[in-house]
């Protein structure tokens, strides 16, 4: 009996992932080289502007505002394969999908985002939205965050930040400040406590902005606990177990509500492949975004090894560099585009208040506006709430900005 061979197809450029990075690169390649055979492999038929979820969880925006159909965002001339990648085999210039398809390529762009490891904290998986547990990182439960905040009647409200890399390093604090505003509007300060349990050594990696955030916490009376990793939840008892990462000492904290930022990692399909570095991320040169061992493989965004914060703003600067260098490689030209590590984190510090952090690989500020962005401003909040979403949908994802 003859064994059947898997179905195959070939494209000049295959892009894994139809999120911020994948669509942005696809749009730039389509605009930069008419007729280039580009295929995006993405299983979901929905696309989310996730930076808005902080405001959804804080009662400042609706979930529907963050959602579009994937089909509406695929650039003209780019093919969309609605399937899931299950294996990446760069030695054969091939990826395999859940439908058993083998797709070969001349060049590969890996933009698969980051993996949320809910199961790494015992008691978390399956309990988000119950027992006072909420998380803005779950699209299924981000609206439960606002419900949980509204239903809070006092006691301890805990907000956690893990030691792993995460999407938008400021997000665990943003929801804390929005929640505190809601608590202040209807509760006496003596009736509740807000605490920030963070596995990192400080409030933010860039000192220029950390000073501003420290002042916000002090003014609000939010108590920070640094180098503390959430390692277990006992939901029915409403108990959180933390471990101090320097001393190993564990503590049990009772809470009325807890907002959990889950541990995160590179997607399994990446970390299992030969594209990964020792910690699981796609191993690329931090300036050219080209793979360090496979010259026809590129990566950007959350799944890449780029040593900068994992934000959509970083992808906005990475996408044009990757697209320019990939097109140069197709022509046999020298790679001249270079990424300097720019990233941005609009740090919501309350309703109508925001610190706009912008910095590079060296953690030096790269500020856009002619004023000190480490200070809270109403104008910067309006930028995040109203301007950046439109910029995302109509500029970044169209390859125009």
TrEMBL record:
<keyword id="KW-0874">Quinone</keyword>
<feature type="domain" description="FAD/NAD(P)-binding">
    <location>
        <begin position="12"/>
        <end position="131"/>
    </location>
</feature>
<dbReference type="InterPro" id="IPR036188">
    <property type="entry name" value="FAD/NAD-bd_sf"/>
</dbReference>
<keyword id="KW-0560">Oxidoreductase</keyword>
<keyword id="KW-0274">FAD</keyword>
<dbReference type="GO" id="GO:0070224">
    <property type="term" value="F:sulfide:quinone oxidoreductase activity"/>
</dbReference>
<keyword id="KW-0285">Flavoprotein</keyword>
<dbReference type="GO" id="GO:0048038">
    <property type="term" value="F:quinone binding"/>
</dbReference>
<dbReference type="GO" id="GO:0070221">
    <property type="term" value="P:sulfide oxidation, using sulfide:quinone oxidoreductase"/>
</dbReference>
<dbReference type="InterPro" id="IPR023753">
    <property type="entry name" value="FAD/NAD-binding_dom"/>
</dbReference>
<dbReference type="Pfam" id="PF07992">
    <property type="entry name" value="Pyr_redox_2"/>
</dbReference>
<keyword id="KW-0809">Transit peptide</keyword>
<protein>
    <submittedName>
        <fullName>Sulfide dehydrogenase [flavocytochrome c] flavoprotein chain</fullName>
        <ecNumber>1.8.2.3</ecNumber>
    </submittedName>
</protein>
<dbReference type="GO" id="GO:0070225">
    <property type="term" value="F:sulfide dehydrogenase activity"/>
</dbReference>
<dbReference type="GO" id="GO:0071949">
    <property type="term" value="F:FAD binding"/>
</dbReference>
<dbReference type="InterPro" id="IPR015904">
    <property type="entry name" value="Sulphide_quinone_reductase"/>
</dbReference>
């Amino acid at each position: 009996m003859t064994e059947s061979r898997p179905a195959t197809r070939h494209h000049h450029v295959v892009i894994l992932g139809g999120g911020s990075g994948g669509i942005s690169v696809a749009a730039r390649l389509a605009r930069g080289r008419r007729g280039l055979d580009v295929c995006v492999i993405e299983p979901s038929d929905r696309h989310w502007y996730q930076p808005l979820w902080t405001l959804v969880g804080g009662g400042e925006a609706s979930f529907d505002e963050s959602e579009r159909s994937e089909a509406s965002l695929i650039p003209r001339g780019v093919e969309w394969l609605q399937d899931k990648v299950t294996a990446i085999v760069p030695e054969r210039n091939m990826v395999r999908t859940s439908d058993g398809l083998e797709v070969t390529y001349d060049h590969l762009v890996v933009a698969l985002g980051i993996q949320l490891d809910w199961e790494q904290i015992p008691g978390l998986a399956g309990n988000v939205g119950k027992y006072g547990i909420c998380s803005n990182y779950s699209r299924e439960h981000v609206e439960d965050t606002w419900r949980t905040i509204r239903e809070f009647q006092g006691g301890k409200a805990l907000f956690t930040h893990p030691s792993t890399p995460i999407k938008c390093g400021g997000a665990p604090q943003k929801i804390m400040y929005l929640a505190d505003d809601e608590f202040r509007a209807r509760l006496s300060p003596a009736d509740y406590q807000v605490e920030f349990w963070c596995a990192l050594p400080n409030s933010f990696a860039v000192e220029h902005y950390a000073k501003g955030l420290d002042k916000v916490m002090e003014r609000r009376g939010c108590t920070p606990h640094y180098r503390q990793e959430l390692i277990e939840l006992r939901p029915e008892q409403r108990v959180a177990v933390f471990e101090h990462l320097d001393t190993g000492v564990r503590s049990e904290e009772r809470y009325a509500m807890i907002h959990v930022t889950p541990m995160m990692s590179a997607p399994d399909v990446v970390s299992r492949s030969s594209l990964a570095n020792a910690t699981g991320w796609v191993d690329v040169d931090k300036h050219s975004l080209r793979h360090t061992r496979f010259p026809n493989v590129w990566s950007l965004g959350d799944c890449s090894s780029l040593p900068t914060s994992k934000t959509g703003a970083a992808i906005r600067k990475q996408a044009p560099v990757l697209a320019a260098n990939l097109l140069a490689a197709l022509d046999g030209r020298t790679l001249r585009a270079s990424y300097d590590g720019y990233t941005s984190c609009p740090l919501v510090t309350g309703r109508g208040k925001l610190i706009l952090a912008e910095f590079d690989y060296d953690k030096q500020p790269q500020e856009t506006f002619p004023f000190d962005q480490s200070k809270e401003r109403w104008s910067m909040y309006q930028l995040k709430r109203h301007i950046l979403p439109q910029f995302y949908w109509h500029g970044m994802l169209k390859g125009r900005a």
